[in-house]
């Protein structure tokens, strides 16, 4: 078999395989193969070789594509692959979320439990109400002592007194006014006079907006007192007026003297005066009287950080509050005294007369 | 149910795409199935590169199976690929070591099918590797001429123009010479 003939045959075979031959030529090729078995073998081999070539080529192409995709994918995922710290974050994300939740919950529940939110308003404004925290330290120690005693005795007695302030009578039959902030959250309210007698009192009416509370002494040991020596002044008083108060910033009555310094109260409150009297926690609810013994206001609070800026609720607000009490809440009508027994007395005499009508308000 | 169906549809689409050499199918194959397999390899003492290699070999096994025409999608493609790559990876792990992992292997349902497919792939690979090597060794323009003529079925006149031969007969001569050279390289090996 010479080379040239083989080349020609291969060419022919290619044409046959590619279907470039006419039907007659095709049958001629087939006949030729039958006639020359040697060429048939060459043809078969050539065909098989081409088959393999095609297969290999396709496979190569596929592999190449696969490789390209692999590279592409690797690049893509590399871009997607975030920095170490972010991967770390993804891992601990859940744990962090749980931890943060616990932290937040515990912080806020602790704040809530310790009464932070109840005090928040007070601590964020510079207005401070003047009720007195009664000997906190002493009380704590007492409570501890009581607890220790209770371990031995098995008795359950706890001292739960919370606050102290001042209140004063508005009628002779036992109506007393004090500040609303004094008696908020009270279990019971007791009034103690300057002789040390203590009476239980009911809360008749409260007016949180005006910060006023009307109490009534319900104790059977209480006897109606003599006529109230002071009257209530309905008109606004003038600036510079000489005024004084008696209150209980401690367990003894404390006299304070000063002047009316402004006709409006904290933040322009028209229902209060600004007064210049040294007041302290415990003065809350104390009467403010002018030189003739007219009650012109009720001490309610002072402004922190400013010297001598205390506030007193105007008598007008008290009268408005008294008028707004529903009749069925009252135990007998409120009849304000209209006879002033103080105007002719000097200050020390006035105070002597007054003391009887001013009470320590003890809130339990 | 509908999800299963759509999964199967995607699998079939990918298989069809592989047959026709569709680039998109390969990309899909990667995005859908590579992550699980990479995880498997990496979690079993493998590196990222090894995971790539295993996945590519797995795809080649599938490819051979598909091209030979006897592949039937009996389970999810994912399952099949996973079985194969697991088998391949364990083979690599146990290369030259004890056959400790063997027991573990045989628990796998699909391992038998996978093993068959891999064996088939090995045979095909052995058969074609020579040809692939020969094709790679064949320089230009022979490679392109043969590729154009036999694979793309381009006409002789086109090839003649493309490579600047004066007439088709010259091109035919060249093609024959190239074919002979390829055969020589192929059979010599």
From TrEMBL, chain A:
The chain crosses the membrane at residues 94-117. Pfam families: Trypsin_2 (PF13365). InterPro entries: Peptidase_S1_PA (IPR009003), Peptidase_S1_PA_chymotrypsin (IPR043504), Peptidase_S1C (IPR001940). The keyword Transmembrane helix applies. Keywords: Membrane, Transmembrane, Transmembrane helix. This is Protease Do. It comes from Sphingobacterium griseoflavum.
Automatic annotation (TrEMBL), chain B:
Gene3D superfamilies: 1.10.1740.10. Coiled coil: none annotated. The keyword Acyltransferase does not apply. Keywords: DNA-binding, Sigma factor, Transcription, Transcription regulation. Residues 29-95 form the RNA polymerase sigma-70 region domain. It holds the Pfam family Sigma70_r2. This is RNA polymerase sigma-70 region 2 domain-containing protein. It comes from Sphingobacterium griseoflavum. The lineage of its organism: Bacteria, Pseudomonadati, Bacteroidota, Sphingobacteriia, Sphingobacteriales.
